[in-house]
Specification:
Layout (H helix, E strand, L loop, with lengths): L2 H16 L4 H18 L7 H8 L6 H20 L26 H8 L5 H12 L4 H5 L6 E2 L4 E5 L5 E5 L2 H7 L21 H14 L11 H12 L4 H7 L5 H7 L4 H8 L13 H10 L1
Length: 294
């Protein structure tokens, strides 16, 4: 990568940190832009045709392509606003249409299987936090003993966009907290315990537990614990607005992507419509006589 590109990436990182963007967002964007530079041989001076060729790859899902487009658009918009480029080639990239997502939750039996498949205590704790608090892997990785307040029965976390929230603490996680570090990360980095484990490491450990449990469905990922959290709350007939708050979603439509309505709830709901008496006859002749008489 050219020194010009490295300098631009460093400035872009500083700009995003000044915006108070989440560290995960900054890191993911950096990875996308670095991969683009590695593939194209340059970055700052790329033209729209090279960018389109990059997006024409056959082995990329639409959702991944949309994420990449967002990162590239943000980068070139920054370059243009700072006077490092006169134009913004990313504005001429086509928008990416992504099919509506379908919930892909683990079943209760699958969660139990992962917990009893021989996973070590640390991995079991990750699975519990993912399922009982509905945390993303990035939030699981950053759980700290000081985030837990047993008096108010809450847990502190930072959601997307760097927004800090305090959420109700599930009793299972409250019990788990008694065995976890009180003044340190629950899942510290191996080489530097003063820092949290990387999100990718959490993903790897939970994935290994999934495979060890004999769950081979590639659509089920560690993020499916979060889907299971939302789905099982709906199954328990928790109001969807409450589920939205617990999942820290800005939009209710996002919550609906994460929650699958079970057949049991559909059956239980449809019978709520009161039966109406069905007349044996149409009543049409009688109606006609009344009309003539009038």
């Amino acid at each position: 990568m050219l020194s010009l590109d490295l300098d631009a990436l460093a400035m872009f990182d500083d700009y995003q940190r000044a915006q108070r963007l989440a560290a995960t967002t900054i890191r993911n964007r950096r990875s996308i832009l670095t991969a683009l530079a590695r593939r194209s041989g340059r970055l700052v001076e790329l033209d729209v045709f090279t960018l389109r060729r990059h997006f024409a790859r056959d082995d990329v899902k639409a959702s991944t392509m949309r994420t990449e487009r967002g990162a590239i658009l943000a980068f070139f918009t920054f370059l243009q606003s700072e006077g490092l480029r006169e134009d913004n080639p990313a504005l001429r990239l086509p928008k990416v249409e992504v099919p509506k997502g379908e919930p892909r939750p683990f079943t209760a039996e699958q969660v139990d299987a992962m917990l009893t498949s021989g996973a070590y205590q640390r991995t079991r704790a990750m699975i519990l936090v993912g399922y009982y608090q509905g945390f993303r892997v990035s939030s699981i990785a950053r759980v700290h003993g000081q985030d837990i307040d047993l008096l108010s029965n809450t847990i502190r976390t930072v959601g997307k966009g760097g927004k800090e929230r305090r959420l109700p603490l599930h009793p299972v996680i409250a019990e788990l907290a008694e065995r976890m570090p009180k003044d340190g990360y629950w899942f510290p980095a191996r080489k530097d315990p003063s820092r949290p484990m990387r999100s990718s490491s959490v993903t790897d450990l939970i994935t290994k537990a999934k495979l060890r449990a004999g769950i081979l469905d590639p659509l089920l990922t560690p993020h499916s614990l979060r889907h299971a959290f939302g789905t099982d709350l709906v199954e328990a007939e928790v109001d969807i607005r409450i589920v939205q708050e617990l999942m820290m979603h800005e939009s209710l439509s996002t919550t609906q992507i994460y929650t699958r309505v079970s057949e049991r709830l559909k059956q239980a709901s449809i019978v709520q419509l009161e039966p109406r008496p069905i007349p044996a006859r149409s009543g049409r002749p009688a109606a006609g006589r009344h009309a003539v008489a009038a």
